[in-house]
């Protein structure tokens, strides 16, 4: 099906113990679409991204990525749980960038970027290095390939984390507050890499507090509160004319 969304969440529920953290999330993301998720702390934004990326199992509803159920393989009308190996294969299609960069501290920048392509995808080292160098140029860090993560600024480390995710040639990129841990003067360099990706047509889901960036780059902005989507729309609709009271009062506080 051509117009099937790349990510489809319908009534997705997730609990930790007795606490229901996602109470029925509906989000759909078309191929090439940039969706920004905003909302107060604790509303379930990270948990939702983690479900999309196979890091948490949902308890109810339907969650599909690339036309396939997350966590399951469909055969006829039956669903079979994925093995760890199958899960790893599916996850290789998704790039994720976290608030804290999670680079391997004992590896150089170049080694960080080629690690997954060579180990998971069995790409020959030389080919992986070539791709890594292209990506380093793309994020403006060609001159840092031999550096260790501890020698980088936060903005540089986050750009490397993005390059590392892109080295797997993902179909989908997830960003969970990628600039929240950065000094203000380093935020722009990371956002500009993300802006470029959006322009190139990458399908992206981004949790962010950078509302100016969301306004400029998002196709759709989703406001989450209390484990569900309260309102979604174009940046113009959601920022200029929010209909839900909870969304309006959140925006008044943060804008
Ligand atoms: P957000 O990213 O919007 O701030 P989260 O998805 O991180 O929200 O968290 C939503 C709620 O789920 C919070 O109350 C948080 O404490 C809880 N939570 C998240 N992960 C876990 C976990 N692994 N175990 C128990 N509770 C969790
Ligand atoms: Mg979070």
From TrEMBL:
Superkingdom to which the source organism belongs: Bacteria
Subcellular location: Cell membrane
Membrane association type: Peripheral membrane protein
Entry's Gene Ontology molecular function annotations: ATP binding; ATP hydrolysis activity; ATPase-coupled polar amino acid-transporter activity
Top EC class, one word: translocase
Signal peptide positions on this chain: none
Documented EC number(s): 7.4.2.1
ABC transporter domain sequence ranges: 7-251
Keywords for this protein: Amino-acid transport, ATP-binding, Cell membrane, Membrane, Nucleotide-binding, Transport
One annotated Gene Ontology cellular component of this protein: plasma membrane
Pfam families, alphabetized: ABC_tran
Catalytic reactions on record: a polar amino acid(out) + ATP + H2O = a polar amino acid(in) + ADP + phosphate + H(+)
Alphabetized PANTHER family for the sequence: AMINO ACID IMPORT ATP-BINDING PROTEIN, GLUTAMATE_ASPARTATE IMPORT ATP-BINDING PROTEIN GLTL
Assigned protein family: Belongs to the ABC transporter superfamily.
Protein name: ABC-type polar-amino-acid transporter
Organism annotation: Saccharopolyspora phatthalungensis
Lineage: Bacteria, Bacillati, Actinomycetota, Actinomycetes, Pseudonocardiales
């Amino acid at each position: 099906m051509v117009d099937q969304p790349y990510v489809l969440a319908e009534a997705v529920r997730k609990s930790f113990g007795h606490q229901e953290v996602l109470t029925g999330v509906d989000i759909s993301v078309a191929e090439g679409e940039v969706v920004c998720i905003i909302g107060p702390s604790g509303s379930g934004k990270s948990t939702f991204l983690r479900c999309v990326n196979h890091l948490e199992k949902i308890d109810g509803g339907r969650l599909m990525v690339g036309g396939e159920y997350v966590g399951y393989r469909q055969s006829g009308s039956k669903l079979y749980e994925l093995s760890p190996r199958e899960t790893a294969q599916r996850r290789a299609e998704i790039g994720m960038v976290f608030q804290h960069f999670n680079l391997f501290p004992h590896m150089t920048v170049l080694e960080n970027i080629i690690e997954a392509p060579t180990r998971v995808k069995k790409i020959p080292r030389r080919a992986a290095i070539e791709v890594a160098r292209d990506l380093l140029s793309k994020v403006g860090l060609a001159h840092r390939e031999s550096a260790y993560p501890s020698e980088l600024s936060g903005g540089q480390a986050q750009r490397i984390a993005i390059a590392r995710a892109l080295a797997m040639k993902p179909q989908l990129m997830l960003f969970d507050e990628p600039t929240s841990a950065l000094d203000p003067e380093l935020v722009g360099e990371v956002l500009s890499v993300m802006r470029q990706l959006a322009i190139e047509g990458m399908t992206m889901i981004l949790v962010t507090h950078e509302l100016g960036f969301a306004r400029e780059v998002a196709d759709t902005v989703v406001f989450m509160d209390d484990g569900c989507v309260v309102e979604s729309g174009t940046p113009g609709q959601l920022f200029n004319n929010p209909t839900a009271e909870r969304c309006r009062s959140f925006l008044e506080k943060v804008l």
